[in-house]
Amino acid sequence: MKTKILAPTDSAYQYPLLIKSLLLSGQRYEPGREIVYGDNIRYDYRTLNQRIRKLANVLTNAGIGAGDTVAVMDWDSHRYLEAYFAVPMIGAVLHHVNIRLSPDQIAYTMNHAEDDLVLVHDDFLAIAETLVDQIPSVRGYIQLSDDGKPLSTSLNSLGEYESLIADADDQYEFPDFDENSVATTFYTTGTTGNPKGVYFSHRQLVLHTLNMATTLGAYEGLPLLRSDDVYMPMTPMFHVHAWGVPYVATMMGVKQVYPGRYEPNKLVRLFRDESVTFSHGVPAVLQMILGCDEAKDTDLSGWKLLTGGSAPTLGLAREMAERGILFHTAYGMSETCPLLTATYLHSNERDVAMSDQMPQRIKTGMPCGMVDLRIVDPEGNDVPHDGEAMGEVVVRAPWLTQGYAKEPEKSEELWANGWLHTGDVGSIDEAGVLQIKDRIKDVIKTGGEWISSLELESLISQHEAVGEVAVVGVPDEKWDERPLALVVPVAGAELCATVLQEHLKQYVESGRINKWAIPQEINVVTEIPKTSVGKINKKLIREQV
Questions:
Q1: Spatial CA neighbour of 215 closest among 425, 397, 348
Q2: Catalytic residue among 406, 441, 445, 505
Q3: Fewest 10 Å CB contacts: which of 19, 114, 144, 209?
Q4: Number of structural domains, the chain?
Q5: What's the pTM?
Q6: Which CATH number goes with the domain that contains 185?
Q7: 450 counts as catalytic
Q8: Contact (Cβ atoms closer than 8 angstroms) between residue 69 and residue 95
């Protein structure tokens, strides 16, 4: 086939895909919409754009330029949103510091990223002070104080954020540069070794934003975020760009509500008082929301929630349906920016009662536009799309990280044979819907068979007295591994292992699981260990048991 390529004229403008372009439409369409930070501050999109220019001048005056790295240690705030734009728009790299890591791991990530400047909230000032000698690349700190009264510190403080913003020039011409320049970096919360640095370019973030806007807003079967919605994240902004939604929300000009530190009662109050319509969060956070005091007397109907990060149980999904919450599931990972798939319901599936939609809504979902997704066996061969055959999920998309920073061997493993390897085991049914069965390392291998820990968690969660559940495989001399369950009862309920084992027998009789899948050991506990981003920490559970 003959392909004709025409060269552009010398005067044609080669439009680079840069983050600054995402700011254009929000201010045009809805200049009066608000950016809200808890009970502290609110302003409109005109002010947001002005403050982004001011922050660019503050950073430039602090000696930050193209290729430098600016770290942020903050709760979800208007300041973080401003840094999402101002830092990469001057050509610098934004490092989202995971403030829930241990101090040693925080120091490791900041050294690895070679941070030059740190924006640090008062709540993390003590940590920063203990680490200052361990991070020699840092030249200065900007303090973030909610009350405008910065704490005294031994750090090389350049001043308090709001004071610096107030004194800064509000004019700044953001330059054009290579769209493949790195814009952001952050570190995975892996279960082995040190965190791994992933990074994303301007081009990748712009393409991811455009795709997510279409995915969440264009389809009747996935109606989550439109221009008149009110957005409040319940996923930390340091975690995969809060799933990329702040970029989408800003481009669309929707009202945005940033809650600061996550406290369930506060989140519900903000939902009610600010008329929030769309949020996203991991299942553990959603479970806390449903169980908090404020939720007992608050009408949650109409709240659209997207969950991911770990598999939602059918029990949680049905509880949300009972409260009138419109619930969808998405799938992705730190390395994928993150969006790969999302629940999509066809018109006939939407016509049935909401409680009957839940088995479909908790599935991992349909691959989004521009996502090429396969499931393969250990030799790299495709497995059948029959909803039963399982294989590793491998993907290609325009926004996937190109590797791990300064770790070429791990990068080669990630991109073996030209496909990004997720480490997740899944199946695809005849309709093309993906269902994640487990992490490769979390599948329970017992008596020559594989048992999905996620499947067991979902079945156990359907007992009315179960609030939270985690299932792991533990060594067994006879069977190689056996499942062990940790269960947190709902408030006021009583639970014991025998009751749950009897509950699981119905699924043996129906052929859903075999009898070997019923855990012989079920421990009733008050709390299940979580990672820094709210996922169940199965590595720690295995170590403890």
A1: 397
A2: 445
A3: 114
A4: 2
A5: 0.86
A6: 3.40.50.12780
A7: yes
A8: yes
Residue 541, C-beta contacts closer than 8 angstroms, at least 6 positions apart: 470, 472, 486, 528, 529
Is 325 domain-assigned?
Answer: no
404 has pLDDT over 90: yes
pLDDT computed for residue 397 by the predictor = 98
Residue 404's φ and ψ, nearest 5 degrees, are: -100, 130
**pLDDT beyond 70 at 292:** yes
| C-beta of residue 199 within 8 angstroms of C-beta of residue 401 | yes
From the candidates 82, 335, 392, 455, which is the catalytic residue?
335
Cβ proximity of 339 and 259 under 8 Å: no
Partners of residue 43 on adjacent β-strands: 35
| Tens of pLDDT, residues 61-108 | 999 999 999 999 999 999 999 999 999 999 999 999 999 988 999 999
Distance separating alpha carbons of residues 88 and 199, to the nearest angstrom: 12
pLDDT tens per residue across span 156-181: 999 999 999 999 999 999 999 999 99
Assign residue 521 the CATH number of its domain. Answer: 3.30.300.30
Active site residue 335: yes
Domain that holds residue 93: 19-262
> 49 lies in a domain?
yes
Which whole-number Å values give the CA distances from 224 to 70, 147, 214, 370, 377, in the listed order? 32, 34, 10, 19, 34
41 domain residue, yes or no:
yes
Contact 276, 303 (CB under 8 A): yes
Tokens of 48: 């947001």
DSSP SS3 for 478: coil
The HSE-up count of residue 187 (CA atoms within 13 Å, CB side) is 30
- What burial class does residue 501 get, using C-beta atoms within 10 Å of its C-beta: 0-12 exposed, 13-18 middle, 19+ buried? middle
Domain boundary among 216, 232, 262: 262
Q: What does DSSP assign to residue 153?
A: -
Interatomic CA distance for residues 310 and 78, integer angstroms: 27
Choosing from 47, 184, 188, 250, the catalytic residue is 188
Strands 339-342 and 366-367: antiparallel
Which one-letter DSSP state was computed for residue 381?
Answer: P
**Catalytic residue list contains 188:** yes
Q: How far apart are CA 450 and CA 517, in angstroms?
A: 9
Final residue before a domain boundary, out of 227, 243, 262: 262
Query: Do the domain assignments include residue 93?
Result: yes
Catalytic residue among 407, 450, 481, 535: 450
